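Q: Is it fine to ask for two folds in a single conversation?
A: Yes, each is treated on its own. Send the first.
Q: Here.
A: Result:
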Amino acid sequence: MKKKIFYIPVAFFLLTIMNAEANSEGRIQVFGAGASNSLGIVGGDAMTPLLWKQDNLLFVDLMGDYASNATYLTSPGVGFRTIHKNQILGASFFGDYERTSLGANFWNLSPGVEWMNPKWDAHVNGYFPMTTSRQIGSTDYANTFGDNSQVTFVTGTHNQYDALVTPFAVIGNGVDAAVGYSFDDHFDHGTHHLRSRVYLGTYYYQAPSDMNVDNITGVTGGFSQAISKNLTVSVFNSYDQVNQYVVGASLTLTFGGNSNILSTDVHDRLFDTVQRHIGIIDTGAGNYDQEGLQNDGMALEYDNIYFVSPNGSGDGTLGNPMSLSQSSLDQANDNNPNDSRIYIQGGNNVVYAVDSSTATESDRDANDDLGLYVYNGQSFYGRNADYTTAASSNEQPQIEADGLNNYSAFIIQNGDNTFSDLSISSSTSGYGTGILAYNNGDTAESLTIDNTTISQFITGLSVNNSGAGSMTVNTDGSSFNENSVSGNAVTAYGMNVSNTGTGSITVNADNSSFNDNSATGDGVQVAGLGVNNQNSGSITVNMNNSTFNNNTTSGSGDSMAVGVYAFNQGSGTITLNANSSQFNGNTSSSYEAFGLEAINVNSGTLIVNATNSQFSSNTGAYLSAGLAAENFNAGTLNINSLNSTYANNTGEYGYGLYAKNFSTGTLSVSELNSTFGGNTTADSIVID
């Protein structure tokens, strides 16, 4: 069926062109356009007579375009124009076949009327979809689409109910109208005058009421200027409450017709473009679509929720919440082994202490760690006061670990766990670890941290894989900032990842920050993210739209400050992938500072891929570099930089990109389309 739909407009287009040539009249246009969101559109419009007798024209028309976001429009149509007293009265009827931004295809029937004289023109069009919605996703609970309005609980239970909904792409019946005025551009073009035109318009689309999406009401305006009889440049804009303000520009090449000529004879406008889809700029489709949710009824979503409140002492059911304590986590796991959701009540300045009263010393593990021991499958969610939605930033529950007695907030051993919408900190800055995560077996484990802040510890998050298993750490919208330490020969990390076994670790850091961590003393180090591979295993770190900025050391000795520090000391592999991320402003007052430093000391492989990223303004008293990489012994070191920036890295020696091979290993560096400037010593230096 799709192939037939494609062939029809293609055949129609060929017929239109052949008919135009046979009648030696008609008009063909091709255009390119761009919108303010970097959307690009190419398209065309072909009009040719079917019957032309005196001042009456029956024509066929084919409009179409394709946009860079894979939206498109094909509009075959017919129309009639008649001239009376130097005015054109016209009517048209089109069938629009379009692919919208949500990937759904629609047919629309579109009648229109128009009026023109040599200077003024007016247009009104209607759009009537054959169907107003198409399913674009699988049925799921409404809260997974950001709608928490129907989340409900039952007192005395661990149950959560929510509406089951199905996502649909939704369009509506619509109408648009525009009035244009043409005038002389006042330049000398010989025997003719070129047309300048301004227009104002409006559009309205009414969505189906059962889809719970907005109606779209917009205004639009624009200006076009004929550069020659064949070439026109246009600028235009529109505003509506759904798509907001959009600006666009286009260049149109016209063959046939005299629409670019301003004259007193309206016959020159007989093959003017039929003005349709007025104000629809931010798509290649003829209509704006929206995502609607069809309600399919209420259903039980979870039966394993344990409600926690600051003064809770109950069994964790709604109305009888439990405390955030080791005994509560034990109880939840006894009732729901390997599968319990902990809803922690938030609010204004709601604090939960992790200390000897909630996490007793008898809970120590083999590493003698203190904190709340988390079972496999337990996940922790900060919620608002009535538990129905995720806690907003100013209402997130504050988990405060006893820093002076070296408590961590949470300790994970061989588990799959999630922490979401929480604020985790130390009661005294510079003590303990926010979350300790261990995997000492041969299983695959995962840790997800969403929209959570971990700060004021020595290390915000510590991950260790000591066996043959794998660990995956996902962070999204989280921060590992302002962790610090004071002393001599000590290190502070936003996150520290260590693989001492033969397994693998994968870190996916998306939209997260590892900033403003600090260390003070003699010979100290600080890193937003530390990566250490000690054996034959592997570590892969994917950094997407994340920041590793302004980590600092102060004091004396050989102190180092770095955004990301990677140390590969075995035969394994470290791969660092930085995409659209920042490694800026890291500073050491006594020795070295780097945006990213990667060191390969044995026979392993270390790979750094930097795309669309920035390594700038790192400052060390002695040595600094945006990106520094060193290869020792017989290992392999590959640096691949694409469209990245290395600028203003300063110190006694300051480099944009510094790479050095110290022994018999292999060093490879690519700097494709990367930019350098303002570095103290050299922009880029590769020593092999």
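Q: Second one now.
A: Result:
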Amino acid sequence: MINPEEFVKAFQDISSGKAQIGQISTKAFEIKHYDTQPVNGHELPKDFPNCCAFHTELFQMGTARYEKLPNCCEPHKRLNQAKWFKKENYAYFPMKLVTTLAYSWHCVKASIDKPEWYKEITDYLDYSMRSYGQLPDGFGPPVGIELYVANLAGYIEQDKHISFDKKQKLLEFLTNFDKRKPDLEQTDINLLLDKYHEWFKIFPFEISFLRHLKPYFEKHIPILKGKGDTNMYSGLTAFQVTTKKELVQFLNSVTLTIIKTINTRFLFESKMMKDVDALKIEMMLANRRVEIQALDRTDWKDRREYIKMLKQWLKGEKKFLNEIWPILQVMEKNIDFVKDLIDGIWRLQKNDINEACIVNVREDKAEKEATFRNWFKNFFQARYPEAIVSAEEEKGKRYIDLKITHPGMHEKIVEFKGWWNYDKKNIASQICSHLTDFENAGYVFMINHKQDEIISSYKELVEDASMNYVEGSWKEIQFQGTDMFYYVSKHKFSAKEKTVYHFIFNVWFSHQQ
């Protein structure tokens, strides 16, 4: 560390909350060299480097360069004024030069004919070049690395067994060793984090249909780009840091992608639009918050595009909701789900033995509950052509018998149960377990296979303490001057009460008349 003050400042910035990441300039420290290991168990010859004239000459070349240090070149001459510089700390260089060249040339020869030759060789060369360490910025390249590169390039160029194409690729990698750091704008990571958090704070994640995206964008901060490249020898994984310009472009792009994909039009078409009044309030509040954020002109250039985009989008969403709300109100007024369900019961009884679901129960055949559910699935799909009607939809560990999703009413969930079924006693808890905060009512279709009335016994099941029955909530309702009755009860399995509508279908109705 040649500038300890920078380290102290980095720690202070983090401790005080001024910065999330401590950054230290490469002018403030030196990276020491390290020894490399050969591949495939390669061993140096006996008496290395005095084993042959070739290695002896290389060692002498390294010694000559060391003796000239720091006056070997203009950048290194600046070391004469550096108080931290001690020449004897670099006495390792002559031996390092001849050793890394021997190891690297062995790797080239051992890997050149392998399928992954380029990755294996260049990873080893990168590992070897990094082992020369790094001088602080302004004091030149690592000591002697140019001799390593020049000599290895000469070996490769002169070798007759390496193809021309492979030579060119390896030589290009070596000769560009000092250009591996792209000439990009100097990036302050804390500045990137601030820019991202600024966008995150402005984006209207409080809107209910965008809320599920918040945890993802809270955890994934795009300050690194591309796929990390891991060196198979050093284990280092290198990434490029996103520049401020690239981050701003990304934020504009992701803002556009989100609002184009998830919006009120999408909710309507997906039959997911429920409480329009609540949505309108959310939009107004979000729009006002973005308008207030836009008044802050600090770094306006970076924020202008996505703030403008959000303001236009929120304005359009408000307009869409205002236009569609009267239509939805008319649609909802025209839908009476209880009346439609009773209409289905009337049609079933009218058709009597022409309906397979009635015959199945009377003759005790298989799929008794399922045939009733499937009949009503087809009935409601025909009654509500614009609805999504699904049967046996999975929810947690259970299945919803019948679910009707319609833009003009809240989601309707119907549970079909036979009186012969043992778990009929849990019917209230079963139907309530399917209801979220967006559904305040569920519907039970109880199939009576007996020739006697079951209403008294059924009421006892509903009012049982285990069903969290709300005392005094049971009601018997006669449908519009007919002999048809249905029943209503309330239950509290969570913080909110839920209403359950009960319809008893007597399959032996004709025998009772």
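Q: Anything structural to flag on that second result?
A: Two points. Strands lie at 224-230, 237-241, 388-395, 398-405, 412-418, 441-448, 475-478, 485-491, 498-506. The radius of gyration is 38 Å.
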